[in-house]
Amino acid sequence: MAQAASGSLWWQHGIVYQVYPRSFQDTNGDGVGDLPGIHRRLDYLASLGVDAVWISPIYPSPMADFGYDVADYCDIDPLFGTLADFDALVAEAHARGLKVILDFVPNHTSDRHPWFLDSRSSRKSAKRDWYIWRDGKPDGAPPNNWISHFGGPAWTFDEATGQWYLHSFLRQQPDLNWRNADVRAAMYDALRFWLDRGVDGFRVDVIWLLIKDEALRDNPLNPTWQPPGAEIGKLIQFYNADRPEVHDVIAEMRAVLDEFNERVLIGEIYLPLERLVTYYGKELKGAQLPFNFQLLETAWNARAIAKAIEDYERLLPSGGWPNWVLGNHDRPRIAARVGERQARVAAMLLMTLRGTPTIYYGDEIGLSRVEIPPEAVQDPWGINEPDQGRDPSRTPMQWDGGPQAGFTSGKPWLPLSDDHAARNVAALEADAGSVLNLYRALIALRRAHLALSVGAFRLRAVDDDVLVYERSSGDERLVVALNLSSHDRPLPDALAGVSVLISTHGDRSGVRDGTPLRADEGLVLKP
Ligand code: GLC
Predict the structure, then answer these.
(1) How far apart are CA 523 and CA 12, in angstroms?
(2) Integer CA distances (angstroms), 406 to 25, 30, 31, 44, 440, in order
(3) What single-letter DSSP state applies at residue 320?
(4) Ligand 1 centre and the CA of 57: distance in Å?
(5) Before 228, cis peptide (omega within 30)?
(6) How many of the other CB atoms lie within 10 Å of CB of 383?
């Protein structure tokens, strides 16, 4: 058992790093990242000090939703490489002490998946019930009022068999029927296929949507919806999401992982905290890490962040391990949301909170929103609903000052940021005060101090601008003071003159100078 001194498991004290494979490193000049590219950058990831790499989907796919439309759960899309490339990647990652987490997309397949082709071929198909087919209303309307997450109705009419099929996302992503035992068995076998190959866990896509109301009742209207909110928000997601029976499915999935040693089940769940925490499951036999997305959504001020932390800590079930996420491929990047200076404070927050942190690739070099010209938009959601486009957060990683920032020798599938000549790993590595070196130092600090990774959390003070908390383990006690404002603020009296382990400004580590918290500064202090 790979346990730290504290007795914690790798996915508890470890740090997860999300790679969006299309945008990480291209090796064959097609402008899209690939598995040999991730392989090439393993040394970078190991040197950064992260523990696990979560790779967004790499399965064969028509790419209608860039891999979240899977046509075969047990292979690799040629765009990304081969199973041999994958095995080599896992072996080399493991040789460096890095775990590999795959994205698993169980809610829907591609409409080109052989299962769906069979299912739609006839009402008598043995796989008909693997998807959710219904008759329309007598007036020709779809079976109910549900809206797709990407806009438009969640139902598409199939001329050949005269019924509608449900798709919570694109019409090219038909929803599987998780009430069908054969679907479950087939999907669990897909999990085993990868677990047998040495995969250390899964991030399960939209896990809270897997089970729908048996009667498929209409969702209630949402009286608070306003434009330009996404169309899906017009309805309250009640009968299509977070259904009680979903927990049985998740417990089964978890049992499959538990057939193997120390694997982790991470669930993608966008729900209020009270609901989110139920995903740890009965007796903690659900997801070990139901993703906690509060930092993606909370107002960026000291009081709101303090409340997010305290509410979460209070609601966690006994024994449930916390986690924190600062960015992902679906949401605006942290630098775009709070600005470059506060993004450094956010990095310190992420690396000093209790619970497993997930870093989104590129955040460590301060990538921000990259504007995409309308003719270059790729994201199907962005095409349907331009305000919702996710491309600005999915642009290529910037490695060096060469052409295309070292990402590709061809034309990148999405544009680089305008400042890529300066904002790249090589340039930032050479700059002691860079955000990349801040990330490196924070990660190293977290690894060096159990108090930061697995220690207890206690809020010490909060006002309109400053958040102060303590992390402790055994005899060690560290204090984190974050200035969420853009003006200088005094440190609480008890902390004046204590030793600074690290400042987000990168210029006074190791000193004991009693200076106040400067604008947008975060400090880790050792009383
Ligand atoms: C999840 C993924 C997102 C994808 C959607 C449909 O939310 O993170 O990228 O489009 O599910 O699979």
Answers:
(1) 24
(2) 8, 13, 11, 14, 21
(3) P
(4) 10
(5) yes
(6) 15
Å from CA of 271 to ligand 1 middle: 15
If one residue of 56, 68, 170, 388 were mutated to test the ligand 1 pocket, choosing by the most ligand atoms within 8 A of its CB, it would be 68
Task: Find the length of the chain.
Answer: 527
Beta bridge partners of 133: 165
Do 523 and 488 contact (CB within 8 A), yes or no?
no
Cα-based distances in Å from 524 to 65, 258, 316, 503: 41, 37, 25, 7
- How far is Cα 120 from Cα 163, in angstroms, rounded to an integer? 9
pTM of this structure = 0.98
Q: Which two tokens stand for residue 415?
A: 């544009």
Q: Mean pLDDT, consecutive 10-residue segments, the chain of 527 residues?
A: 67 98 98 98 98 98 98 98 98 98 99 98 98 98 98 97 98 98 98 98 98 98 95 98 98 98 98 98 98 98 98 98 98 98 98 98 98 96 94 98 97 98 98 97 97 97 97 96 96 85 89 84 95
In 259-391, where does DSSP find H-type helix? 273-276, 294-297, 302-315, 334-338, 340-352, 380-384
Residue with CA at minimum distance from ligand 1 atom 2: 205
